[in-house]
Task: inverse folding
């Protein structure tokens, strides 16, 4: 791991972002606790689900505001690790942690009705993978990394579209679920396929693609996003080479592998979870004839 002793506490831990994330945790804790009765149809939220939300927020902070965020500006492999945690690991944890009655309170208003088409499964599947792949086109990536306001907006866009994509895998509101278990499994498989081209191009590129990780001038401009001090001393000591002991190509290859392997691992877990729940429901129907009648009536109503 690169030595972070060159950087201040503010650079490493982003106190303002930390306070914001703590405020989110406090609001959530009060919403599922003392304020729960203010929500229609609310029910207690178990410790397991609350812990999932808290842990998801903690990981999101570490990836986007904590040490991993700074490391992601020093090495591409850490950048891809940060992306994988933020957009592959965190979204299902947040979806699991936020109860259905809170989602209904937030999105049942008629204001959202004209925008419901955006939650079409094919659209949500495409949004994240297209935005992610577009971001990792070398010229686009370097431009966004050196334009700080655009960088922040784009990362928010990636998080929103990742949540939209994961919604159809772990839909927290039963009546808003659009996919059968079999289609969810196919959805997860397509997600893995759509992200593969970007990762393959990064892994098998024979030369460095992203100048912000090897060019001293571009590196200094990108580091200005997360470092408040003067970078001239670091540039005099070697700039990006001071922190990265791997070659730019090796670092790049490792980053692509990290992203793809973590996505495959999480997707395999999601696919297994969907299959197990599907299997248990089918077994319950076999054991209880009344459930078979309800299922048959539902299919007739959908015809």
Result:
């Amino acid at each position: 791991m690169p030595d972070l002793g060159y950087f201040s506490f503010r650079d490493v831990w982003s106190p303002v972002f930390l306070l914001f994330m703590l405020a989110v945790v406090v609001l959530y804790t009060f919403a599922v606790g003392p304020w729960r009765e203010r929500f229609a149809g609310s029910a207690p939220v178990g410790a397991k689900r609350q812990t999932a939300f808290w842990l998801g927020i903690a990981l999101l902070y570490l990836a986007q505001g904590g040490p991993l965020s700074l490391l992601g500006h020093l090495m591409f492999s850490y950048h891809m690790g940060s992306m994988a945690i933020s957009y592959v690991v965190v979204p299902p944890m947040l979806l699991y942690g936020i109860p259905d009655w809170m989602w209904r309170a937030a999105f049942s208003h008629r204001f959202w009705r004209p925008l419901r088409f955006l939650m079409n499964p094919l659209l949500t599947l495409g949004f994240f993978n297209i935005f992610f792949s577009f971001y990792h086109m070398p010229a686009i990536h370097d431009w966004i990394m050196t334009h700080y306001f655009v960088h922040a907006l784009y990362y928010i866009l990636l998080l929103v579209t990742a949540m939209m994509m994961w919604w159809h895998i772990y839909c927290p509101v039963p009546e808003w679920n659009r996919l059968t278990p079999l289609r969810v499994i196919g959805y997860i498989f397509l997600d893995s396929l759509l992200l593969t081209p970007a990762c393959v191009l990064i892994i098998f590129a024979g030369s460095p693609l992203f100048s912000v990780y090897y060019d001293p001038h571009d590196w200094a401009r990108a580091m200005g996003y997360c470092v408040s001090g003067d970078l001239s001393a670091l540039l005099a000591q070697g700039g990006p080479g001071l922190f990265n002991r791997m070659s730019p190509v090796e670092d790049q290859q490792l980053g692509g592998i990290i992203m793809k392997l973590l996505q495959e691992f999480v997707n395999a877990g999601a696919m297994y979870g969907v299959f197990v729940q599907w299997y248990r429901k089918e077994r319950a129907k076999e054991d209880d004839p009344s459930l078979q009648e309800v299922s048959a009536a539902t299919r007739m109503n959908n015809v």
